[in-house]
Amino acid sequence: MYQKYQTLEELWNVVDDINQRYFPENNLKPILGDGKTFRPKIMFVFINPTYANISSNPNWQGSRFPFIGTKPLWRVFHRAGMFDDELMNKINNSKSWSLELTNEVLNFLKSKSFYLTNIVKWTGHDATLPNSEKIKLFLPILKREIEIVKPQYIVTFGLIPFENITNQKIRLKNYFEDVMKSQRLRFFNIEYNGLKTKVIPCYFPVGRGDPKRAVEILKLINSL
Question: 50 with 126: CB under 8 angstroms?
């Protein structure tokens, strides 16, 4: 559907067009993906952003990627050994996120070969999960994004991205118990337009998810 778009910049223009067409009353900007944008080791796929992400403000001049302006996610990454001590201290001690701090986080993600994105690129005013119509609208965008970015692994936070990316169903509780017992990750293979990659399911790391179990899975991922 979106095969003619060869770059993320072209794809983000499509995202903006979709938001203006289907959600003209929403004044929040969609949150896109960023980090290492070509062949990263890990693409982390979240669900949908909220206004708590400061880059959803139309006046924001920097990159727009998940969890800018919030602290809990980065604390989870830090506890899993995936985030820098000094940078975590800066985030913990900051009363607000500057563009400079955002760029520091972005540069760190690039250095770690990480890429962060959402399955639904529409920003809500609360933490309500996206309905099936929004998922259906934005899923082809994510699939094309995966084809362009070409990650080695994809980590899906929550069942919504996992089930829609893999077309498979699992019980996260069973998956968690299996990998904790064996201390070995189990992968789910996907192929999009000739691109083959491996998907790793994980608990959503904040809010209604399970941060403690997410940390344990991320620790195994960090050892890849």
Answer: yes
Nearest of 123, 141, 13, 138 to residue 68 by alpha carbon:
123
pLDDT digits (tens, 9 = 90+) for 112-142: 999 999 999 999 999 899 999 999 999 999 9
Indicate the burial class of 86 (C-beta count within 10 angstroms; 0-12, 13-18, 19 or more).
exposed
Put simply, whether the predicted model's pTM sits higher than 0.90 gets the answer yes
Query: What number does CATH give the domain 8-63+71-222?
Result: 3.40.470.10
CA separation, residue 124 to residues 66, 164, 172 (Å): 13, 20, 26
CA distance to 99, 127, 146, 188, per residue, from 82 (Å): 22, 25, 22, 22
CA 27 remoteness from chain centre: 22
- Within 13 Å, how many C-alpha atoms sit on residue 130's CB side? 25
- Region at 107 (left for phi over 0; alpha for psi -120 to 50; beta for the rest): alpha
